[in-house]
Design brief:
Helix content: 25-40%
Oligomer: single chain
Largest sheet: 6 strands, mixed
Distance between the termini: 27 Å
Number of strands: 14
CATH superfamily of the largest domain: P-loop containing nucleotide triphosphate hydrolases
Number of domains: 2
Strand content: 25-35%
CATH class of the largest domain: Alpha Beta
Structural class: alpha/beta
Radius of gyration: 24 Å
């Protein structure tokens, strides 16, 4: 759906982005993370065919940004960080205006606008004037606008910026819904926790260079080479600890918050025999699971020195 090769943009001697290689498939939700000025907006504007690179290539849905920009624009919905609304228009009028620009005509136009308002949960504001909306509602209206022509790709530049906590939660839920609809989405942010729980792929860009570009699961594997289990049993804790500590799969064991934290030897991922061992020795398992690590913690471990907000 999206592919870039050595994508580079220079302004004089300064690089806005340098050698960006990116490949996304249908349904991917890509979290584009980086401090302000890192190159996120430049990359998205190039993909939206609003800006030409200095060199490199980019394809969207198989079309080249150089030779087929019109075809790309029909398939892409781009929402910038800040955008204007027409103060003298009601919400439904605002959407119908842009639906007309997309050449959606007749009864289908009003139907499509109503459907988009329902998707972004803004139908209760359909007759309100656009300038009376809150920041979060305005962002959702902007998202409804870019969805009108049913784009396959969404480029959302900091859609969570400036939102209150409730509005951020609502917007994240909406992004999940769009991902489940099969949309390919690039969503940028300079604060990792905003995107940590909704993306399947993530990239970190700093000073125009992509530092990390991989799947969420690969990030976790990079951070933790050893599987760590959290185990809690009913019975003699000391006996259970000795039983597990002597097992050849176990590298180390410690107690933490009333549970055993068991680190397996590198490369060992099949730990089913440990649970069987405990049960066979008369222990009842109260908790037996891999220790979770947050995406934020993983990135902090991988990106020390890239920026305080990454």
């Amino acid at each position: 759906m999206i592919k870039t090769v050595d994508l580079t943009k220079k302004y004089g001697d300064a690089f806005a982005i340098r050698g960006i290689d990116l490949e996304l498939e249908q349904g991917d939700l890509f979290g584009f993370i980086g401090p302000n000025g890192a190159g996120k907006t430049t990359t998205m504007r190039i993909l939206a065919t609003l800006l030409n690179p200095t060199w490199g290539e980019a394809y969207v849905c198989g079309y080249s940004i150089y030779t087929q920009p019109r075809e790309i624009r029909r398939l892409v919905g781009y929402m910038p960080d800040f955008f204007g609304v027409y103060d003298d228009m009601k919400v439904i009028e605002y959407l119908e205006f842009f639906a007309a620009a997309y050449r959606i005509r007749g009864p289908q136009r009003r139907k499509r606008c109503n459907e988009m308002l329902e998707i972004v949960d803004l139908d209760f504001k359909r007759d309100a004037y656009a300038n009376t909306l809150s920041r979060g509602q305005t962002q959702r209206l902007g998202l409804a606008r870019v969805l009108l022509h049913d784009p396959q790709v969404l480029l959302l530049d900091e859609p969570l910026s400036g939102l209150d906590p409730r509005a951020r939660i609502e917007m994240r839920n909406l992004l999940r819904k769009l991902g489940n609809m099969g949309k390919t989405i690039i969503v940028s942010s300079h604060i990792l926790p905003e995107l940590a729980d909704i993306c399947n792929k993530v990239g970190i860009i700093d000073k125009g260079v992509m530092q990390i570009n991989t799947t969420v699961s690969d990030v976790m594997r990079l951070v933790r080479q050893n599987t760590v289990l959290e185990i809690e049993v009913a019975g003699d804790q000391d006996q259970a600890e000795k039983l597990l500590g002597d097992h050849p799969l176990v590298e180390s064991l410690e107690r933490k918050n009333g549970r055993m934290r068991v680190t397996l030897k590198a490369g060992d991922v099949d730990y089913s025999q440990l649970s069987s061992l405990l049960v066979q020795n008369g222990f009842r398992l109260k908790h037996f699971a891999e220790e979770t690590i947050s995406l934020e913690s993983a990135f902090m471990a991988l990106t020390k020195g890239l920026g305080k907000k990454i």
